[in-house]
Amino acid sequence: MAAHRTGPFLLQLSSSAVHIPLSTTPALLAKYKTKTTxxxxxxxxxxxxxxxxxxxxxxRVLDAVDAAGLAENTIIVFSxxxxxxxTQQDGTVVTSNAPLRNEKGSLYEGGIRIPxxxxxxxxxxxxxxxxxxxxxxxxxxxxxxxxxxxxxxxQPVDGLSLVAALRDPKARLKRDTLTWHLPHYHHSTxxxxxxxxxxxxxxxxxxxxxxxxxLGRDVGERTNLASREPDIVAELRGALAEWRRSVGARMPVxxxxxxxxxxxxxxxxx
Length: 270
Hints:
The protein is α+β, with helices and mostly antiparallel strands. The protein has helices spanning about 25-35, 45-65, 110, 140-145, 165, 230-245; strands at about 75-80, 115-120, 175-180, 190-195, 200-205, 210-215. The strands form two sheets. The chain has a four-stranded antiparallel sheet, covered by helices on one side. Strands 1-2 form a two-stranded antiparallel ribbon. Helix 1 crosses helix 2 (about 45-65).
């Protein structure tokens, strides 16, 4: 950090914690084995140790920025690329995303709702919380906005700058819709999803079914309202199809070499 006191720099740090295979240091494993477990919750000492390892890593970065005297001029973002993994490939339950439904690889909130914490002293009011829905696609235009960099007019940008929303937790982006597309099998089945306001629709490609949830009243996505709200389903499904068309989204096709005995295997056959 000291080498960048007088110039711009970008550091992206992708930690291997928390991730499978679950393992931690002997000291942390011993520490969390002494803790009281919670009834009905998969209390895993190895998982807890990994979380503390990640916490220590983040602390080292923050301490280095502070020691270099760069805190007031450095924006730090803590986020993730997906929701938490609840179940390992062998079926072992390792944690819970409750009250969110499901896990990494699905389009329920447990798979796509992630932590997003930003430190920017003097620009972001300390301790503030915003409920403005955002996407990691917004990071790129946000950093460009902060740095005063203009993109060529011909370069498409999928996200929006979050600068106004970061400075004012009550601010809203000029966007009312977010979309997701997972046309493959990975902890779930091929699907797309769209969120507009508090309404969220998931379209599953295996059987062409849809599910509709109101996240403001049902963040756990327990009550499918698709049959009660046909007009909202039609609106969101149409918007989702148009978005897929506009971006040239690839759709799943049958695999002529499908082997049901390898459905849960990882890696390639030898």
